[in-house]
Design a protein that fits this description.
mainly alpha; 3 helices; 9% strand; transmembrane; transmembrane helix; Putative Flp pilus-assembly TadG-like N-terminal domain-containing protein
């Protein structure tokens, strides 16, 4: 069985065109990593935008919670849409129980990737 060192030596013994092969392989790897980083950046950006919109919606809904849980849910949905929450319609649940009232706002979104999709 041939050792790896001998195999590589035999492969690169004839040096004509070796640089082209190595540069081509390096460029493919580099472009693959650039595509991966770009798609992960798009995912992180969309996640942060939705989180900001849902945080604003939850805060707006919480201000209406002492009045009515229905009004709190409506306000939360409106604020999520005003803050360009470009996701599926947000799911809002509110519980108006004294002294522990709470409102929960959540949403999901399918992200269109530039390179992976």
């Amino acid at each position: 069985m041939m050792s790896v060192k001998r195999l590589l030596y035999g492969l690169f013994r004839e040096q004509k065109g070796t640089a082209l092969v190595l540069v081509s392989a390096g460029m493919v790897a580099l472009l693959g990593f650039v595509a991966l980083v770009t798609d992960i950046g798009v995912l992180a950006l969309n996640k942060q935008k939705i989180a900001n919109a849902l945080d604003a919606a939850a805060l707006a809904g919480a201000q209406e919670l002492p009045v009515s849980s229905v009004q709190a849910c409506t306000t939360a949905v409106n604020y999520a849409l005003l803050n360009e929450c470009n996701a599926d319609p947000p799911l809002v649940s509110a519980y108006n129980g004294r002294p522990n009232s709470k409102i929960t706002v959540s949403a999901t979104k399918e992200v269109d990737f530039t390179f992976a999709g």
